[in-house]
Specification:
5-stranded parallel beta sheet, Rossmann fold, Zinc Finger, Delta Prime, domain 3
């Protein structure tokens, strides 16, 4: 992947290029940011630039043998580590085929997309201790082409403690010309001893102008439409994919949201329990996506109420629902809704019991609706 294929991030691209051109590459780098900001694509573009045999001042050439190997994910000195469902494969080697397919199809993806790709049962993947042994084994070998050996660890926050502890020494004192790139959504769950051994590279959200330009160039939409979508997604390209593409998941989230509001409005505790048990059966990633969708609908309700519908951006089905629902969201309760759903998202990420969490959510929604 070339830097030109990465959406926005101009200043960060320049920083990474300067590292290579000035030969001041930190042996372990922690790329921190949401997957939709381009963390993994940036890492791939950085590696391709590092390996490129005919690099320019602004990008890799894209046509030399090294660039072609990186693009095809077949470079012998580029290694990947990523979460796997342990019942399917203890190491990344067992899912390399799916990994390459995913990167070629769409390099902007998150853990939920990866779960869908690799496991029909949607179990939680991790990076386990056997993966750490495989990483050490791969990096102990000499470079095939005489230059750098690179290990990209995607979703490194999914390393369990045994794996992280086993990698401490090699991350601190790697073999010569070895580069670690750890890609994380958040560093909160990373071991402090890992973080202290890495140079932090914070990947910011894509700017509104950069996202709008990308949408105009790739989605064939006009300036007003592109600006509207860019404002909606808040610099996250995965939100663009969800907003413009995945209608099946959007429909499921919409129906789940409508059902939640109905059972809470009717104060039907039995139906609340049924709703809570139903959503608790879905994966944690799906639960997080639903909570984000709910926050979007609350924002759209407020825009409808206070801007005379001038700024809302919803589907026809959502629009029909908001005609009746938005009046229940006001300045008196919107902050309660936002706080409660944000807190639910936070606790789901930290493995809260989903049945208890969503049942509590129902009671809070019921109170807020009838207190509006």
């Amino acid at each position: 992947m070339q830097f030109s294929s990465v959406i926005g991030q101009k200043s960060l691209k320049e920083h990474l290029i300067d590292e290579v051109r000035n030969d001041k590459i930190s042996h372990a780098q922690l790329f921190i940011g949401k997957p939709g900001y381009g963390v993994l694509p940036l890492a791939l573009a950085f590696v391709q630039y590092l390996f490129c045999e005919n690099k320019s001042e602004s990008d890799s050439c894209g046509v030399c043998p090294a660039c072609k190997k990186v693009k095809q994910l077949q470079h012998p000195d580029l290694h990947f580590s990523f979460p796997t469902v342990q019942a399917i494969s203890k190491t990344s080697n067992g899912n390399l085929k799916e990994w390459r397919e995913q990167l070629i199809e769409q390099p902007y993806f998150d853990l939920n997309d990866w779960i869908h790709k690799t496991d029909v049962r949607e179990r939680k993947p991790i990076i386990g201790v056997q993966e750490s042994e495989e990483i050490i084994k791969k990096l102990s070998l000499r470079s095939y082409e005489g230059g750098y050996k690179v290990m990209i660890i995607w979703m490194a926050e999914e390393m369990n403690t045994f794996c992280a502890n086993k990698l401490l020494k090699i991350i601190e004192e790697p073999p010569k010309n070895t580069l670690f790139i750890l890609c994380v959504d958040s560093q909160e769950s990373m071991l402090a001893t890992i973080i202290s051994r890495c140079q932090l590279v914070k990947v910011p959200r894509v700017s509104l102008d950069e996202m709008s330009m990308h949408l105009r160039e790739t989605k064939q939409i006009n300036l007003n439409q592109a600006d509207s979508v860019a404002a909606r997604v808040d610099g996250d390209f995965l939100e663009v994919i969800e907003f413009l593409g995945d209608h099946i998941e959007q429909d499921a989230n919409r129906e789940q949201f409508i059902q939640l509001m109905r059972v809470c409005y009717k104060k039907n505790v039995l139906d609340m329990m049924v709703w809570s048990e139903d959503i608790a059966k879905s994966s944690r990633e799906q639960q997080k996506i639903f909570l984000k969708y709910a926050l979007h609908m609350f924002r759209q309700s407020m825009l409808r109420n206070y801007t005379e519908d001038a700024l809302t951006k919803v589907s026809d089905e959502e629009n029909a629902f908001l005609d009746k629902f938005s009046r229940f969201i006001s300045g008196n309760n919107v902050f309660d809704f936002m706080k409660t759903f944000n807190e639910a998202h936070y606790h789901i990420e930290r493995n809260a019991n989903p049945k208890i969490l969503f049942m509590n959510l129902c009671f809070n929604v019921m109170r807020y609706i009838h207190g509006a």
